[in-house]
């Protein structure tokens, strides 16, 4: 296991793009990219908690900005512009994002005050919204206790959502218009708390688990194939070739999220060969 970058804050959203691994440092309001020589570039500076992002088919970066209540897109000159207004979807803001091969973005929200904890009741408030390339948006899935990392299968037909509070990866069929149906438990993870996820070339899922300080590879159905143990919380992961990239940090719990300073966030690389 190699430590590529250290001394960061709360880190998230690793994405392999254009020959580099990109990830966000929420605490310091930055999106960084690291090349194969471990050179680090600050690509975006923007204050938002969270600060999740993905890439459109044309290569532009699109990020969740709860400061602006919108998706913002990074233009070729490096400026940020409004891509879609999200203000009407949730007063509590949004969390993760994934973009499919047609340029449709899926954005989720727990839709409650994270620091205060989830509301009671059988119906959970969390949801997934579809944002179309024209900027329009609508909710396409609900009753998620805490929707977190998301991934689209290679064939573009399934969206997998990590529900951290229910310990599940939830699968939805993606229709031609981007709507979701056929909800199912893609993998029951028991007592695990899946955060960021990715799918590998064999169709297995890797999920990061903050309280259990590990990343785990599972099949659809939940059979465990491999576990990578860490010394701090694993927030998200990405696979490129035979390398697993993990962003990890110390976790103080939701109540201390806004004031905690001792994250010691890291970008890690684990060989899978």
TrEMBL record:
Pfam families for this protein: SGL
Record flagged with keyword Hydrolase: yes
Protein name (record): SMP-30/gluconolactonase/LRE family protein
This protein's record includes keyword Hydrolase: yes
Alphabetical list of InterPro entries matching this protein: SGL, SMP-30/CGR1_Lactonase
Domain SMP-30/Gluconolactonase/LRE-like region residues, every copy: 12-249
Family membership noted in the UniProt record: Belongs to the SMP-30/CGR1 family.
Keywords: Hydrolase
């Amino acid at each position: 296991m190699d430590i590529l970058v250290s001394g960061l804050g709360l880190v998230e959203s690793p994405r392999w793009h254009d020959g580099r691994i990109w990830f966000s440092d929420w605490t310091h309001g930055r999106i960084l990219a690291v090349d194969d020589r471990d050179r680090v570039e600050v690509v975006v500076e923007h204050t938002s908690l969270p600060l999740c992002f993905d890439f459109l088919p044309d290569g532009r970066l699109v990020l969740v900005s709860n400061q602006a209540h919108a998706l913002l897109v990074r233009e070729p000159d490096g400026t940020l512009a409004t891509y879609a207004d999200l203000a009407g979807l949730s007063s509590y803001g949004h969390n993760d994002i994934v973009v499919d091969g047609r340029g449709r973005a899926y954005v989720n929200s727990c839709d409650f005050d994270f620091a205060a904890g989830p509301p009671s009741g059988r119906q959970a408030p969390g949801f997934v919204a579809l944002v179309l390339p024209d900027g329009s948006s609508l909710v396409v899935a609900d009753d998620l206790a805490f929707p977190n990392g998301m991934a689209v299968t290679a064939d573009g037909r399934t969206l997998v959502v990590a529900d951290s509070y229910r310990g599940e990866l939830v699968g939805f069929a993606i229709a031609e218009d981007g709507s979701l149906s056929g909800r199912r438990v893609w993998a029951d993870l028991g007592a695990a708390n899946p955060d960021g996820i990715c799918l590998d070339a064999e169709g297995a899922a890797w999920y990061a688990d903050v309280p259990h300080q590990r990343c785990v590879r599972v099949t659809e159905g939940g059979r465990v194939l491999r576990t990578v143990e860490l010394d701090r919380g694993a927030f998200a992961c990405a696979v490129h070739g035979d390398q697993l990239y993990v962003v990890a940090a110390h976790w103080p719990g939701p109540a201390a999220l806004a004031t905690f300073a001792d994250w010691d966030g890291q970008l890690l690389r684990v060989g899978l060969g």
